[in-house]
Design goal:
Elements lengths: L9 E4 L2 E10 L5 E7 L8 E5 L7 E2 L6 E4 L6 H13 L22 H9 L4 E4 L7 H14 L6 E5 L4 H12 L4 E2 L2 H8 L14 E5 H6 L1 H8 L3 E6 L13 H14 L2 E7 L8 H11 L12 H4 L3 E2 L6 H7 L7 E8 L2 H12 L11 H17 L1 H17 L6 H15 L7 H12 L10 E5 L3 H15 L6 E4 L7 H11 L8 E4 L13 E6 L6 H8 L12 E8 L3 H6 L3 H14 L11 H14 L3 H21 L1 H7 L25 H12 L12 E3 L4 E5 L33 E5 L2 H11 L9 E3 L6 H9 L7 E6 L9 E10 L5 E11 L5 E4 L1 H8 L14 H55 L11 H32 L9 E8 L1
Parallel strand pairs: 6-24, 7-12, 7-13, 8-10, 8-11, 9-10, 11-12, 14-19, 15-17, 15-18, 16-17, 18-19, 22-23, 24-28
Antiparallel strand pairs: 1-2, 1-5, 2-3, 3-4, 20-21, 21-22, 25-26, 25-28, 26-27
Length: 982
């Protein structure tokens, strides 16, 4: 048995070829090798083997490569073989290579998160840009960059139920990243077919799932604990942050997010509201990214975390410079209406409501909460108020809610007053109908749709029924989104999709606040109506952001309602309009709108507003409080590092590192991806290949390839996930395939954008045109196919008459110097040239390709005698291995210097952690015998926490050492890719 192979070595084992990612020693001295498959059925699959027990396993000797004379026309097979190898090689450059290349508008401010991510050794980033600035697109750019570096083979996206399809579609249409959508319907299909011991996430390298599915499904949660990803993206990450008023649901989400943060190398958190106004809330997100940065969660220092956060507002100069002229200015309309006599009576009763429990000061807070809930309900609709009253009355009657019989009678009396508010007496609803008459809105124009928001589900339900009747609309024309069970996620996605489709009959979308986060509702809509104002400025902005966002082509029209009462107490309760005024101020340059209420999340803001309503301080006093908080924030931002950590922006440029030659992008033989794809399609279209049932077409003038999905791109067994005969989800989502299993590929980003827009005008919302760029998975299929031209451990030999000197031999090689995980730290392509006089020299691949005009038409001639080519290989391999060792030695000093800086920073942070521990729990005393029992408990707790701190820093130290230090192999593995003779 050979000695245990080093990371980076290529081995032959069980009739397949594998690359060694790592090696470790087991009990009894056995060696385990961790491998990734390179060929056939095991390609890109990871496995572990006990090396000592694999009797037929062997390390492949690069000098033993089998040479095959290439007789293909124009040496096309050699060229395609090389191009596939070039493109399959991950780049190690830290320079961004996707900016300006993806199928999105190239906005300069969106470059910063990408540059920040690439500057990090371990990508950990909180993207907290304002609503509507494209956090999903920024995440897509980062994911694309990591994928091109081989650092995003396994991706998990966690988002809300309503966002599943939208996020999946954005990643596919804009970046060609396929995500398997694991919604409730998909999981239900797979439940009975996937074996109990299988991990669902092992079946999908790239997937998207809702956080509620993860939270509620025990089998899925267990699968997470036994899975590991290259990249996890948590969308709307504020839902998983620790909050001051943490509920059971929020606590479950926070626990789940912490678990996910430990199961990935790279982590992106996306949210426009990264905290609830408290250091602890913000610190909980930072701890997910890098727990070594937070010695004290109650005192978060901006200087400790600045490289982990990107946050800009709509008023940030770089944002204004990019999109200020592109986004039409919002129009805000205030609708005031007098309350009807029936409403006045009910409102006054709510304002004057006095329950027996008010006398119990210890329980007064609970009653305040109920009165606030009642006020929110009556502000929303009589239906919502009636529902709240009935629930409370039932609770008193069955003993599940506190209250006396007299309280129940008072609530029953109030309920009868609310019942008296019929549709005619419901003045806000009548004013809504008047608004639609004023707008001459009929529902006939497919581009004039309405979004109506209400906080209360009872109001959403009531509105959907009444508007159908009063506007003469069909059931299909009025849709609603109000949450419901996890199983409702498919229906929710269908409604959101339909609302954005021009041919859909939906004209009004009535939504609860579950639709206020992240969703794009602006495609066919520019009118949004707040049927009830939210008790949170952030929620108001989130709602508006559904139509007031980049890509809106008409001025967004936002309408809200204000009731006018003659009762002083009712007027004092009506403070919500002041939130609208502060939203206008935020749009004009305040920056973080959270400064007005001092919270930072919707729940915290609602509490502040509720206290103002309950106290009856009135609108003017409420506004004065908000102005005072904003003024204090302005003064603190420049003086207080901790305050700036919460409310400031984060936009420092990414550090720049000098590029070295070995870190440049892999070479290219074809001028662009479309030219390469065209050549590969033409090669695979030959009858003898039997790849396509119908010949593909290539229209050069349109830069368009049209083809039918070939058999080997179809799913074999997705355990019920994919439809019978559907495309394999590794290559593209099933929805992206057009009728007749046809797809279209183009490298024209503008064509993709037009196709996305056109898809909104058609019945299907997924465009059949796909973006052909370096990130498209069809290139993986090309690589698989190219591997059949010259199978593993085989290389072509070609004759270059007149382009190489007689007797000159050139060997094109690829090699890498990996880290302990098998990932390349140095990745190198080069040509070793033996001159006619027998000297060896190394030439850069681009220079060689240019010198020999190899990309041009190249006549092919058979080579009968391969001995001359074969004789050069041992010396060429040895020369290239020596070159790689020299590169490693040259890089080691720089890498060690960077690593020392990281380890020094970790050591300094560990010292701060232990100092904070001493402040919290005291120093360790020399004489433990004299300690009291309380002191002994505190000492035990201190030691437990100290061990936890040591494990934490040990884990992070080991990660950096494993990934930054290179394997010191004197004979690194290299691959002979082609031999060219003169």
């Amino acid at each position: 048995m050979n000695s245990t192979p080093q990371p980076g070595a290529v081995i032959e084992l069980r009739s397949a070829t594998w690359k060694v990612l790592g090696a470790s020693t087991l009990k009894l001295g056995y060696s385990e090798v961790h491998c990734r498959g390179l060929s056939g059925l095991v390609r890109d699959k990871e496995a572990r083997f006990v090396w000592n027990l694999e009797k037929d396993a062997r390390v492949l000797d690069p000098t033993g490569v089998h040479l095959v004379s290439d007789t293909s026309p124009g040496l096309s097979d050699t060229k395609l073989h090389l191009e596939a190898a070039f493109r399959h090689t991950p780049t190690t450059t830290r320079r961004a290579i996707t900016l300006g290349q993806a199928a999105i508008d190239d906005l300069t401010f969106q470059h910063l998160p990408v540059e920040r991510a690439l500057a990090q050794d371990r990508v950990r980033l909180l993207i907290a840009d304002d609503v509507g600035l494209g956090k999903t697109l920024e995440a897509g750019l980062i994911a694309s960059e990591l994928a091109l570096r081989g650092r995003a083979n396994r991706i998990l996206v966690v988002t809300t139920r309503a966002m599943l399809t939208q996020f999946q579609k954005e990643f596919w249409t804009r970046f060609s990243i396929p995500l398997a959508r694991l919604d409730s319907a998909a999981i239900r299909r797979m439940r009975n077919r996937i074996p109990a011991h299988y991990n669902v996430f092992d079946q999908f390298d790239r997937s998207i799932v809702s956080i509620d599915t993860l939270k509620r499904d025990a089998q899925i949660r267990d699968a997470i604990r036994h899975s590991y990803w290259d990249l996890i993206i948590i969308d709307e990450a504020h839902n998983a942050a620790v909050r001051k008023n943490t509920t059971g649901t929020n606590s479950q989400r926070a626990d789940l997010a912490r678990l996910l943060s430990r199961r990935t190398d790279s982590l992106l958190l996306l949210t426009a509201t990264p905290h609830d106004g408290s250091q602890e809330s913000f610190a909980s997100l930072i701890e997910m990214l890098d727990p070594t940065r937070v010695p004290d969660p109650s005192r978060l220092h901006r200087s400790d975390i600045e490289d982990l956060v990107v946050r800009r507002f709509r008023t940030s100069p770089e944002v204004v410079a990019d999109i200020g002229r592109e986004v039409p200015k919002r129009e805000l309309f205030r609708r005031s209406f007098p309350l009807s006599p029936q409403e006045e009576l009910a409102y006054q009763s709510v304002a004057d409501l006095h329950l027996d429990l008010d006398e119990e000061s210890s329980r007064g807070r609970a009653i305040d909460l109920f009165r606030t809930t009642l006020a929110k309900a009556i502000f929303s609709s009589p239906a919502a108020c009636r529902e709240t009253l009935e629930r409370r009355i039932r609770g008193i009657e069955n003993g599940t809610a506190r209250g006396t019989p007299e309280d129940r009678d008072r609530l029953l009396a109030l309920a009868s007053q609310v019942d008296a508010i019929d549709t005619v007496a419901f003045s806000k609803y009548q004013d809504l109908l008047q608004l639609l008459r004023d707008l001459r809105w009929t529902g006939r124009d497919p581009r004039d749709r309405l979004v109506i928001f209400s906080e209360r589900i009872a109001t959403v339900s009531w509105l959907s029924e009444r508007l159908r009747l009063d506007l003469g609309l069909s059931g299909e024309q009025v849709a609603r989104v109000d949450g419901g069970s996890v199983e409702a996620d498919v229906r929710t996605q269908q409604v959101i999709e339909a609302f954005g489709q021009a041919r859909s009959s939906v004209r009004i979308l009535i939504a609860s606040d579950m639709a206020s986060e992240g969703l794009n509702l602006h495609f066919q809509c520019h009118r949004l109506i707040h049927f009830d104002l939210p008790w949170s400025l952030l929620r108001f902005q989130q709602r508006n952001g559904r139509i007031d966002r980049y890509g809106q082509d008409r001025p967004p029209q936002i309408t809200y309602f204000v009731g006018e009462s003659t009762h002083p107490k009712v007027r004092q309760m009506w403070v919500l309009e002041k939130l609208v005024a502060k939203d206008v101020a935020a749009q004009e340059g305040v920056g973080d709108p959270a400064v007005f209420l001092g919270a930072g999340d919707t729940e915290g803001e609602e509490t502040v507003v509720a206290e103002a309503v309950a106290a009856g301080i009135g609108a003017d006093a409420f506004e004065a409080q908000m102005d005072a908080r904003a003024a204090e924030a302005t003064s603190h931002l420049s003086l207080d590092d901790e305050f700036a950590a919460l409310f400031g922006d984060y936009a420092i440029p990414a550090p720049r590192k000098a590029e070295v030659a070995a870190d440049l992008a892999p070479p290219r033989l074809f001028k662009d991806t479309f030219t390469y794809a065209t050549a590969m399609i033409e090669r695979l279209s030959r009858p003898e290949e039997c790849v396509f049932a119908v010949a593909p077409s290539v229209v050069q003038e349109e830069r368009m390839i049209r083809m039918t999905i070939p058999e080997d791109m179809r799913a074999r067994d997705g355990f019920g996930y994919a439809s019978e005969g559907a495309v394999d989800g590794r290559y593209m989502p099933e929805e992206a395939v057009g009728p007749g299993d046809r797809i279209e590929l183009t490298d024209e980003a503008q064509v993709i954008n037009q196709a996305i827009d056109q898809a909104k005008m058609q019945e299907r919302s997924w465009p059949t045109v796909q973006y052909l760029w370096d990130g498209h998975p069809i290139l993986e299929w090309f690589a698989d196919r190219a591997s059949t031209f010259f199978p593993e451990h085989t290389a072509p030999v070609a004759y270059l008459h007149g382009r190489l000197e007689p007797g000159e031999v050139a060997v094109i090689l690829h090699g890498a110097v990996p880290n302990a995980n098998g990932a390349p730290v140095v990745d190198r392509w080069a040509v070793v040239v033996r001159t006619p006089d027998g000297m060896l020299r190394i030439e850069e691949v681009p220079d060689f390709l240019s010198r020999t005009r190899f990309a041009d038409n190249t006549p092919s001639r058979p080579i009968d005698d391969l001995d001359r080519a074969r004789g050069v290989i041992p010396a060429a391999v040895d020369r290239f291995q020596t070159h790689l060792v020299d590169l490693r030695r040259a890089r080691e000093a720089d890498i060690q210097r960077d690593l020392d800086n990281v380890l020094d920073r970790l050591a300094a942070l560990e010292t701060r952690f232990k100092a904070q521990l001493a402040l919290d729990l005291g120093d360790v005393l020399a004489d433990e015998e004299t300690l009291s029992s309380a002191e002994k408990r505190r000492l035990t707790l201190r030691r437990v926490k100290e061990q936890k701190i040591e494990r934490l820093f040990q884990d992070w130290t080991e990660w950096f050492e494993r990934t930054r230090r290179m394997v010191a192999d004197p004979n690194p593995h290299v691959d002979v890719k082609a031999v060219l003779v003169g």
